[in-house]
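Field reference: sequence -> structure
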Amino acid sequence: MTTAKAADTTIFTRRESEARSYCRSFPTVFTKASGAIMTDVQGREYIDFLAGCSSLNYGHNDPDMKSALIDHISRDGIAHGLDMYTDTKAAFLEAFENLILRPRGMDYKVMMTGPTGTNAVEAAIKLARKVTGRRNIVAFTNAFHGMTMGSLALTGNTAKREGAGGGSLADVTHMPFENAMGDNNTLEYIEWVLENPSSGMDDPAAFIVEPVQGEGGLNAASAEWLQGVERLARKHGALFIIDDIQSGIGRTGPYFSTEGMGLNPDMITQAKSFSGMGLPFAALLIRPDHDIWKPAEHNGTFRGNTHAFVTARVALEKFWSDDAFQKETLRKAKYLEDRLTEISAQIPGSALKGRGMMRGIDVGSGELASDICARCFDAGLIIETSGAHDEVVKVLAPLTIPDAVFAKGLNILESAVSAATGNNQIAAE
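Structure field:
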């Protein structure tokens, strides 16, 4: 097998589609990764504050997950089984039931969808329409739910929507997220539209909401606002769907980002870190009374990744058998909040965004945010932007990141902010 030499990226520019994106911000050839560190072909190490866009909450190549997967492959364990019964699927479902659902008093059927988050979202909106007999879905400003046509219709970002090339992105009403209208109460506005027979809004089949908007700029919804959205859904005969693909699986502290908020969603989407190791794996959690699918009515060749069942089970058993991991994540989240508060003080008018270990700084412009991230990469830190104008510098470090590595990465970020803003204060190594 031929490997890339040095940092030569010409094969990618010559043969890979122009749709490639992250590589444009990080123009080197990576060869290995462990924990919170990625290494390129020249042997240079980078601290990873992107973590596969939260697909690697437990870091790169967790040794226990890796060992279990190698053992499974070595004994000729099932590699692909469509949706047939397998020992690995049974073990995963039992672990998910015993460690996640039952301790939280939750009763959901687990629907294996296609392997990515947008597949879970597509299944959710399709089922909501089937259950209610309605078409309209309420999504929110700055939402991002995926790039396939149904999910893209829910997505607010114009640049991403333009990728549809003029195709229909219909049967969705976008409503203002919390604080999207300044001091105005967005729930009151949504209720007014719903109850006004001349508003032009069709009765909704469902409301779908991200508790923390990952790509939309780390806008974090309050428990009170989410409760209000659920109340409106119940009042108007619609389903309530939580998209916890990026904000869940420990990213904000608890397994689900809405734990303790008094919510009872009809469906919850899962993907990204669901496999534990970065393997493609997505699912839709469905309240049993809504599970009205006929056999094969919604299917796909890769509905359930057998290798991901192996690593996902290990992740659940290793990190969610007690509350130690959650407590450790919340401790790191407090440190992150304190450090970002100090760093943002260098930027007049900046604001801290997000919740838990899903945090960032709104620096006011995409140009400044991109400059900061580029300086970080030059100094050995992988970090990206988010928001409608790419104005938020977003920290998505692995939840397992060692304290010393975490501090070093934040020191690099602080130095990059100082340099980009002309502040002569340079963070200590």
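Note: Residues 324-344 form the longest helix (21 residues).
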